[in-house]
TrEMBL record:
<protein>
    <submittedName>
        <fullName>ADP-ribosylglycohydrolase family protein</fullName>
    </submittedName>
</protein>
<feature type="region of interest" description="Disordered">
    <location>
        <begin position="294"/>
        <end position="331"/>
    </location>
</feature>
<comment type="similarity">
    <text>Belongs to the ADP-ribosylglycohydrolase family.</text>
</comment>
<dbReference type="InterPro" id="IPR050792">
    <property type="entry name" value="ADP-ribosylglycohydrolase"/>
</dbReference>
<dbReference type="InterPro" id="IPR036705">
    <property type="entry name" value="Ribosyl_crysJ1_sf"/>
</dbReference>
<dbReference type="Pfam" id="PF03747">
    <property type="entry name" value="ADP_ribosyl_GH"/>
</dbReference>
<keyword id="KW-0378">Hydrolase</keyword>
<dbReference type="InterPro" id="IPR005502">
    <property type="entry name" value="Ribosyl_crysJ1"/>
</dbReference>
<feature type="compositionally biased region" description="Basic and acidic residues">
    <location>
        <begin position="294"/>
        <end position="303"/>
    </location>
</feature>
């Protein structure tokens, strides 16, 4: 089980780092190769080094730290997002996340500042929540609560919860058909437009349509109505993790989030041993994410305050231990 947990969490971050330089660019499927690259000069991610991740994995890191210590609450999560925003440390943030944080700052409303947008900016939260909760009924309201801090669109709720259920089912049952069905059922129950787009992506894959034509038909924008269906198309098309990650990272558009989803799927399906180890070793904060995967498998039980030891307010981590300056450099 730990192999799958590490695979899912590090696979997601690996995918994010692989897709980082392709974000907002056009698709390029000729001569596809797999490897870390630097974004072109002038790109919003140009300051990131090969092997570094984007804002998607920043959200994973914040949520994983809270969930691993069984100290999840939406207000603490919102405070960490706001702190990242105030320090100007978000890495080319999703526009909706940025707008929500700006609203938090101006209104002092940590919980009610979410924005009605269908962007996929919080779908990465599906990964740590899928790992932290064995009980899907317990997971669902907490994950939707986390999404609502930044995103309030029903399509985003359906996509994020659906993908979390897919990962959770895949890890627990090792049954890909059951995992896909968990996603489709959630989408059908929560947002029929998303369900129709997912089913269409699966239908397109079944026809054998070339990837460039499929991308044009499905879409590769930052909307969950494009990002998640395209990810499912790719996961069904490419069984070999290296191929899956290579083609996902070459899709342009929302390539970072797209490849993150594909990496999480591949890691949950095959385990970390099946992912390209030469890239895993070069991944930013690789050791910390491995430790977080171990903790998410068996989250720490929250301590109950005694009469002699009243509960005190949890303070934010000090800067050296934060998500901001890891001191990491590529090997």
């Amino acid at each position: 089980m730990l192999n799958k947990y590490k695979g899912c969490l590090l696979g997601a971050v690996l995918g994010d780092a692989l897709g980082m330089p392709g974000e907002t660019t056009v698709s390029r499927f000729i001569g596809v190769t797999l490897g870390f690259k630097r974004a072109y000069k002038g790109h919003p991610n140009h300051d990131l080094l090969p092997g570094q991740y984007t804002d998607d994995s920043q959200l994973i890191l914040i949520a994983s730290r809270l969930l691993a210590e069984a100290s999840w609450d939406p207000e603490t999560y919102a405070k960490e997002l706001l702190r990242t925003y105030n320090l100007n440390k978000f890495r080319y943030p999703d526009g909706t996340t940025y707008a929500a944080c700006k609203r938090m700052k101006t209104t002092d409303d940590l919980i009610g500042s979410g924005v009605y947008s269908d962007s996929a900016g919080c779908i990465s939260l599906a990964v740590p929540f899928a790992l932290a909760y064995k009980d899907r009924k317990e997971m669902a309201p907490k994950l939707l609560e986390a999404c609502s801090i930044t995103h309030t669109h029903p399509g985003v709720y359906a996509a994020t919860l659906g993908f979390a259920l897919l990962l959770n089912t895949l890890i627990e049952t090792e049954n890909t058909a059951a995992a896909y069905q968990a996603l489709l059922t959630a989408a059908q129950n929560m947002d029929q437009d998303l369900a129709a787009r997912l089913n269409n992506a699966i239908r397109i894959e079944g026809t054998g349509m070339p990837i460039d034509d499929a991308l044009a038909a499905i879409g590769n924008s930052s909307s969950v109505y494009h990002t998640l269906p395209l990810a499912i198309f790719l996961c069904k098309r490419y069984d070999i993790p290296e191929e899956l990650l290579a083609y996902a990272s070459a899709c342009g558009g929302n390539a970072d989030t797209l490849t993150l989803l594909c990496g999480a799927f591949a890691g949950a399906r095959y385990g970390i041993a099946a992912l390209p180890q030469e890239l895993i070793t070069q991944l930013e904060r690789k050791n910390e994410f491995e430790i977080l995967a171990e903790k998410l498998l068996d989250p720490k039980k929250p301590e109950q305050p005694t009469a002699a030891e009243p509960k005190t307010e949890t303070k934010s981590q000090e800067e050296p231990e934060s998500i901001y300056d890891s001191g990491w450099e590529p090997e």
